[in-house]
Amino acid sequence: MLPDRLLRVVQLLSKLPGVGEKTAQRYAIALLSADESVARELGRALAELHDNVRPCAECGNIADVREKGEAAICTICRDSRRDASLLCVVARVQDLFAIEKSGAMRGKYHVLGRLLSPLDGVGREQIGMDRLLERVTSNDVREVLVATPPSVDGEATALLISRELGAHGVQVSRIASGVPHGGDLEFADQITLGRAIEHRRRFSF
Questions:
Q1: Which residues contact 126 (CB under 8 A, 6 or more apart)?
Q2: In degrees rounded to 5, what are phi and psi of residue 109?
Q3: How far apart are CA 24 and CA 63, in angstroms?
Q4: Type and span of the H or E element at 199
Q5: In terms of DSSP bridges, do strands 62-64 and 83-90 run parallel, antiparallel, or are they unpaired?
Q6: What percent of the chain has pLDDT over 70?
Q7: At how many degrees (to 10) do helices 152-166 and 129-138 cross?
Q8: Rounded distance, CA 169 to CA 140, Å?
Q9: Does residue 106 contact residue 83 with C-beta atoms inside 8 Å?
């Protein structure tokens, strides 16, 4: 029912995470119906994306390429007000964004890109364990906060990081997991409730 060129746009948009065929069709028709300049500007921005945005050479976050031929360094790594002795390790850039929005992390970050999963052929080399170890030992990092998800792969990754960095005398901590704020206990899973009780803390008066 759709013209071939519009159908091609729908097919490309539907490759994005969380975008189904109906949503992609709605987006494509909206772009077609909007002012022509919107679609052209979007096209230019997408065409320039891979040329001007790269993983940060220090932490793996997303960064602008400032000068051609120079390594891309993100705004967080360039921020001298950050506590360089505190390093938060995350699996994905999206996790970094979520933690950054909380405003609770004033250190720097290290993005692994993936989680340990031996069954899928992802070992310590694939998650860049040596690179993390070198960064920690050469930058006087006093604490590494492991903020991988509370999944089987996330826990395995956290355990590996704790074991290897701990052997070098680095303090390694793990983000706590528990009942979400505003959530009902009856809807919490057993693992979440168990962790919440295990990591309980005293009231301070």
A1: 114
A2: -125, 165
A3: 27
A4: none
A5: unpaired
A6: 98
A7: 40
A8: 11
A9: yes
Residue 120 lies in a domain: yes
Helix (H) or strand (E) holding 84: strand 83-90
Quote the number of domains for the chain: 3
Question: Do 96 and 108 form a contact (C-beta atoms < 8 A)?
Answer: no
Quick one: pLDDT at residue 154?
92
Residue 54 lies in a domain: no
Mean pLDDT of 30-48: 94
CA 142-116-85 angle, to 5 degrees, is 10
Q: Are residues 163 and 198 in the same domain?
A: no
Do 107 and 145 meet the contact criterion of CB atoms below 8 Å apart?
A: yes
d(CA 95, CA 132): 17
Beta-sheet pairing, 171-174 with 107-111: unpaired
In a domain, 55, yes or no: no
Residues 152 and 186 occupy one common structural domain = no
How far apart are alpha carbons 100 and 111 in whole angstroms?
A: 13
d(CA 114, CA 110): 12
Single pTM value for the model: 0.83
